[in-house]
Amino acid sequence: MAQFRLQGSKVLAVDMAGDSVKARNGTMVAYNGQMNFKKMSGGGDGLRGMVTRRLTGEQMEVMEVKGQGTCFFADKATEVNLVRLNGETLFVESDNLLCTEATLRTGTSFTGLNGMASGNGLFTTKVEGHGWAALTSKGPAIILRVSQGMPLRVDPGAYVAHTGNLNRSLKSGAGWTTLIGEGGGEAMQVEFTGEGLVYVQPSEKLTFGGDV
Hints:
Mean pLDDT: 83
Largest sheet: 12 strands, antiparallel
Number of strands: 12
């Protein structure tokens, strides 16, 4: 089984003994031992996954890395966060998914307006099964718990990923004052309710509702 560990905060090291992992294309920064790299079609699971990604816009290019030794992955000096899945489903923006164990299944999930507000289209990537996944974030991500009766609101541009049994809905604080240029500056938020964890980065990418 591939062993995931952090080499500092911005590099993922994966120790492999004949194992394989799936990683975003172009994120290998170094390796020792013997490694083979194989580009995967569309980043999903086979032809169906490829077609789904083409249709949904979640077109993350993925490669399979297999070998003996240690392979190091990084992406633009962003922070790397490890997530251990034990049968849960991880929902993550494709730009933030760096690497997964080969045992994990990937696919897409419809997000509707929530996804549009976050600037990543109508669909997001989901990862399921048992194993490690590595996420990237601009700055160290914080992990916020959502519980019954304690909803969480997140800026769409700061959202990275979530796990658990969560519902999310787009909330707007825009009113008539927005129309006359006196909006509050945080007109769009995503509200999470239920039970689960939300990963939030200390940086906001440009979003649909960003500066309203």
